[in-house]
Protein 1
Amino acid sequence: MATLPDAVAVDRPLPGRPPRWGWRVVAAKEFGDGILSVRLFILILVLGLPAILAIHSTAAFVGNNAQSLTGVPGLFVAMFAHQDPNSQVPSFVEMVALLGPLLGIAFGFDAINGERSDRTLPRLIAQPIHRDAVIIGKFVSGLALMGLVLGSVTLLASGIAFVSLGVTVGPDEVARLAAWFVVAVAYLGFWLAFAMLCSVVVRRAATSALAAIALWIVLTLFAALLVGIVANFLSPVPATATTDQQIANAELSAQLQRVSPGTLYAEASQYLLDPTVQSVDIATLVAQESNSRAFPTSVLGLDQSLLLAWPQVVALIALSVGCFGLAYVSFMRQEVRA
Amino acid sequence: MARKRARVGRAGTSGDAGKDVAIQTHRLTKAYGELVAVDNLNLTVRAGEVFGLLGPNGAGKTTTILMLLGLSEPTSGRAEVVGFDPTREPLEVKRRVGYLPDDVGFYGGLSGRQNLRYTAALNGIGRTAADERIGELLEQVGLAKSADRPVEEYSRGMRQRLGLADALVKDPSIVILDEPTASIDPAGVTDVLGIIEGLARDHGVTVLLSSHLLHQVHQICDRVAIFNRGRILAQGKMADLAESLAGDQLELEVGLDGPADQVEAALRSVTGVVKVSRDPHDAHLWRVTGPQSIRNHIASDLAARGMGVRQLRRVGDELDEIYLRYFERDEGGRGNAA
């Protein structure tokens, strides 16, 4: 054998530069997987059918009461926020509040533990990307996929609303719907982040899904009950309670409910989709009710509605980011072989 | 040729981080609480050689590999891979090192080719260059025909070969293979070993492989380190290890027919024999220990007594015995210390 002095180089030229934003590569791959998945198709149906039922029910009500409703400001967006008062079918916004968490859970519950059980995680993080690229990429692609599902369902619902109203819709209303869409995605983002947190902490995908679903059910079904008990304990309402005491109790429970992302989303949606809503605060509403003359119904601009909704929007985004932060930190601290 | 050079390189004093050192560790230690998985490991792998890290399951091989890749942080000590510290510059290391994890996994829904494309993208290799390289690699590992079938239809051996191709996508200077032959059938083992050998010989790639199956990998290893409980028991060429273990004592396995007491007396009478014992499983097999010279005496002395030797074998020659004796020695050392 002839000697080849330089055949063995310790280092050799590299075929590529590692991507500067590794999460984009991860997100692109995850999005590509997701867009063709059965999962996406099922979710479009699960969210789409009830949401269309909701908008259809409201549209029918508007159609039947066309005369009395003519001239109501922001009727188009109000159709998303309000249900037919004579029907059991919740509004479009409520449907999203109820079923939205399912989207987040479906796209997040197996994000990390799925890579573990497929044994692809060691191979993935042995590539020249930072470790956080994996979790960021998956979160971003999850948001994009949820945005896609929610966006297509919202557009379809808008179409139905258009047809039943038969009037043109102003740019203000389109902007309101767009703002609502951003808030709704933030709400779904909370659930995505929470499901991803479960997928980091819990080894088995099935258990992780169960944990996420448990929180969903607790917050949806029992939150009001629990909040009521806590509020009655902290701010009791005796049989001889004054109006002030009752209001204090109601305000406390409203504050406590705002711990739930669902409440924040619902309140922000009311502000954004109904230009006549000026407050969701109990005391103000009570006062408004008793001196309706002192508070003539006025129509707010989008900027004013946004200002009103701002605390809820910020709190909602903070919850989502905080939850994602937890998932991020616990993922970064985990051993590869854990 | 590459291997030739590696052997020449070994003449240099150990510890000089010369140009031809691919991997070097200095007192590398990883402890999980009380458990010390890797204990003050000093290891040098030269460029272009095939280095085997041999030891039973749980010896600390995978932990060592993860530290070399920067996927796990050492508790103390340091490592240098292609001139980079994996803890400080993991991306530079991961650009240059291909990794085949133990029990490698792929995205089952994607084809073999798509899985490799993802790896190429994570390494920042452009689409056309990547497709060309992936095509060549799939050809090289014999998967060209199945490249576009989903990986979930692949057999274990096919996955392992795909894993090798995956580790090579980035055109690495070093490949680290964790248990490359475990859990595949004998034909698959031959294929995989052939590919690995070709890498070092034809492409000048440095190979570090770990295995608990000594007899499978010893033919392709230039040097090995025998590893148990986080420590290296012996390091060097296979033949040298066998030699050093035996020392001046030789143990022979002798097959002899005849009454046990007569045979034993005859064996004891052989010039130089110090110990005779009967094989616990086979009544006609005896173990004889003595200096190297007994090999020459045994047949002639027995023939003089009219006894025909049916079988004569040096015990230390069997690889697995070398291996086991190192571990026995290790156990013994621990026992005395305790």
Protein 2
Amino acid sequence: MALQIGDELPEIVTPPVDRLRIAYMTVAMRDPNLVHVEDAYAAKSGLPSAIAHGTFVTSYAGAAVSRAVGVDAVRRIRVDVTAPVFPGDVLRTHAVVTASEPAPEGRLLTVDLTVTNQDGVRVGRGTAAVEQPAA
Amino acid sequence: MGRQVGHRFPTREFTVDPVRVEEYVLALGVEPEPGYRAEPGAVVPPGFFMYVTTYGAEPVHDALDFDMLRTVYGGTEIEYRHPVRVGDRVLVTPEISAVTEKDGKSGRLTFVELTTEYTREDGTVVLVERSNTVQRS
């Protein structure tokens, strides 16, 4: 897929980030932080419930890019987590090519990334650099 | 207190076990590529590399004196210099690369940037992860 400035990558609509996914992520990451597991603990931080890992936000943004260009074409990704993700949230990615510059073996594209929840609240934003081979 | 900028943690080994990548993809419920399988030789998905996953949270958070109740993950930047594949063994070295304090509305905020280098045994840097965490006072 030859991408150009202005092109949008296919949107990802995630499955609900439910408590089972959060539990799997806790295991996958070996993350000991109880804020992802116990509501009572999260309440001590002033949160209404446990929250999902920020890794969901960075990873869904990354998946929007890797699904479009291939896992091996991603050169850099930066995602800032801007709001918490709660159990049951459904996230959407928006990814658009905003720059293109020559690279040793083709072009290096910049992709702007936004992740929002079902209420339209932005939970993450960032950029990725992907390498596109010469046509 | 290991909160000094430039503090490097002792290097640890991490082998990209297919089960860990499988669990990560299972958690997301979205494949990093259609039909992706976490088999030896497959390139590791973009968001997998987090120091919590590859190094362990405790030694880092203990040294940073983090109280997790007042700590929020701010985001990550990852540079992929060479592909890392399922089954690869890498050396993982986190370093406290920046500490910034700011006075916010609810008190003092401490921003900590942790830069984690992933190298092959021959010293080639394959990946650099920069993670940001904010702690309230």
